[in-house]
Amino acid sequence: MMSDSKSHAEIPILDMSKTLDSSSLSSLIKASKVWGFFHIINHGISKELCSQLHSISKYLFSLPSETKLRVGPFSSLKSYTPHFIASPFFESLRVNGPNFYVSAKSSSEILFDKQDSKFSVILQEYGNKMEELSKKILRLVLMSLGEGIEKKFYDSEFKNCHGYLRINNYSCQEIMENDKVEGLGMHTDMSCITILYQDEIGGLQVRSNEGKWIDICPNEGTLVVNIGDMLQAWSNDKLRSSEHRVVLKHIVDRFSLAFFWCFEDEKVILAPDEVVGDGNKRKYKPFVCLDYLKFRENNERGRFEKVGFTVKDFAGINKAHL
């Protein structure tokens, strides 16, 4: 149990329908370096589509545990993460791109007695929109690193990125008055960027540079974007992959959709000289993306903090060696 947080993050809002002007660029630079989080609006994801996904997901997670475990960790698909893997209060279904329809169908054929393509069709639509949105956001984030960075490095460094989706459900049977339960422990994301839809329940918190937990409250019509470990390393820490967590404040299920836009597994991550900058020292040794993913999977900090380690633990150059 943890005492209640009363702080809220005033993170910038980026309008995806408008050209990035100097004011918006300045806000994006600050958001990416200080918080590692920002909101986006006019992103092209309709309220109706999110509502459809929410409705289908409610049915999915209401299925008996033995049914969901047919695609669990010991199945051939391994698409479902049950309670007590990452947290006692967290469960999730993974859908892989680029063919989200096929990935969703593989799970739905096992989970649902009555076969209906609606689940797969909706996830294909959402996944496709997320892919296009991720590309746009990544270009803007690269622009925040300096003039010419996006133009020079987007195609050469990021053209083989891929995405996957996690449908998340958080549930808690009992919460003490004035307390809250940690639904998912402190972690950073192993992506370049993550795009999150969270329902009105909220619960997402980001850790500030001072170590305080700050609420990122849900706003209707907005999505949350955060920088991941891969982009932090590629930018030589000019972009921040912030530690964050989910807290449960109410005895009601919390729903979220997280889309992770990632480097290809064989990608060697090394910040370009132009990004490091003249006179600056490298903060990371070169590393292969898949090696870092395996490191995170095989190292734990505490019972439920499988994601407690970060890219600095894996590839950071010790200051004593600089």
Automatic annotation (TrEMBL):
Q: Which SUPFAM superfamilies match?
A: Clavaminate synthase-like
| PROSITE patterns to which the protein is assigned, alphabetical | FE2OG_OXY
E.C. numbers: 1.14.11.15
Q: Which residues form the Fe2OG dioxygenase domain?
A: 161-264
As for family, the record states: Belongs to the iron/ascorbate-dependent oxidoreductase family.
Gene3D superfamilies according to UniProt: B-lactam Antibiotic, Isopenicillin N Synthase, Chain
In terms of domain of life, where is this protein from?
Answer: Eukaryota
Q: Which GO molecular function entries does the Swiss-Prot or TrEMBL record give?
A: 2-oxoglutarate-dependent dioxygenase activity; gibberellin 3-beta-dioxygenase activity; metal ion binding
Which InterPro entries does UniProt cross-reference here? DIOX_N (IPR026992), IPNS-like_FE2OG_OXY (IPR044861), IPNS-like_sf (IPR027443), Iron_ascorbate_oxido_reductase (IPR050231), Oxoglu/Fe-dep_dioxygenase_dom (IPR005123)
Q: What is this protein called?
A: 2OG-Fe(II) oxygenase
Write the record's keywords in alphabetical order, separated by commas.
Dioxygenase, Iron, Metal-binding, Oxidoreductase
Q: Does the keyword Iron apply?
A: yes
